Amino acid sequence: MDAALPKKATMFRLSADLLDRLKEMARREHRSLNNFVECILLDVAYNEPNDTTIAAIEEARSGRLRNATPIDTSSVEAMFKSAGL
Predict the structure, then answer these.
(1) pTM > 0.70: yes or no
(2) Domain containing 54: what range?
(3) What's the domain count of the chain?
(4) Which tens digits make up the pLDDT trace of 45-66?
């Protein structure tokens, strides 16, 4: 995000457990809590799925994939074979 963009301070009430989890996640990425949370919110607010992704989500939620042959993920070769490649 461009540092020249104006920022506005705000306050949220979060559960202590969630705040602790966010702090730990930010620490593991060597980032400030503010930067970590801002990036998560930017991702949610501005990254909308395209039409292909929306169609795939709807197909998965519809249950049409439940009768499909499962993909073997035990190895790359097995995955390709089970996918018919």
Answers:
(1) no
(2) 16-82
(3) 1
(4) 998 889 999 988 887 777 677 7
